[in-house]
Amino acid sequence: MNRILTVGLVGLLLVGCTFDSTKPAPSDRDNTAVNERDADDRTVTPMDQSNASADIDQVAAIRKAVLDTEDLSVNGRNVKIITDGGKVVLRGPVASSTERDAIARIAGKVAGTGNVTNELEVEKD
Which chain regions cross the lipid bilayer (predicted)? Predict the structure, then answer.
């Protein structure tokens, strides 16, 4: 009985699936160069985030302020905010230099201007 049920469900799934070989497969962004660049020991990544409560609170405050800012792109809202010892590193793509500067200002208000390293990358301007 279970075998019949399984075969029936698989058959229904296959009937519901369509494949159009005339359409090109969606292309994924190739992050190889970025990943190779970030593989060295000098690049700060999210794995470098401190677990100290003050650093976690600082990231939360910056993230909240970023999310409360109107007119930021999806990428801008999702930048990496990495904090260790009160020092903040901002990483990731943003839509414009205006957006990059706005996020850096937000981080500077929370962490202090001299405590922010802005590594945000403008996708286009």
Answer: none
